[in-house]
Specification:
The protein has about 190 residues and is of the alpha/beta class. It has one domain: HUPs (Rossmann fold, 3-Layer(aba) Sandwich). The protein has helices at about 15-25, 40-60, 70-80, 85-105, 120-135, 150-155, 170-180, and strands at about 5-10, 30-35, 65, 110, 140. Helix 4 packs parallel to helix 5. The longest helix has 19 residues, at about 85-105.
Length: about 190
Amino acid sequence: MSVRKLLVHTCCAPCFIAPYQQLKEAEYAVTAFWFNPNIHPLLEYQKRHSTLQSYCASEGIPLLDTGEYGLQSFLLATLRDISARCEYCYEVRLEATAKAAKAGAFDAFSTTLLYSRYQKHELIIHTAKIMADKYGVQFHYSDWRSLWQQGIQLSKAAGMYRQQYCGCIFSEEDRYREQIQGNKPKQN
């Protein structure tokens, strides 16, 4: 089956811009999907959400938005086992995406998490395949990590807000701890 109608879970506009350009060139009908209960604090969530809304509007990309933040549920679940927070984060977001793809009669779903060099790539693939089977909708895999520099250049040229951590409070703590200890230069 040829995948044409694709729902892409979108963590933020800077991670979406290069994969979207590639998908657009391949003539996919892309809809962005916003569901990111991991992002903390609320002001950070709003900045990322607003940046994605602006980008989608400027490009004429349909944006499917759940309208729910979900931080409390995310924190309650991850505080039980902080070391497994990424697993839970991928699971809850990819499940919501697969469920929305099925409900919206999309051919497949994917995620911009596959763009990041800092995410657990194999775990994302594994989790997405489980959700594809669970909801009976195809998972469209693309390794977008090779687009990393292109995405940075495109998002800077577009004047997008660019965040410095994956979004959760735990990754923010890691980021600042490393900076304070001098182990990691500040990212641009």
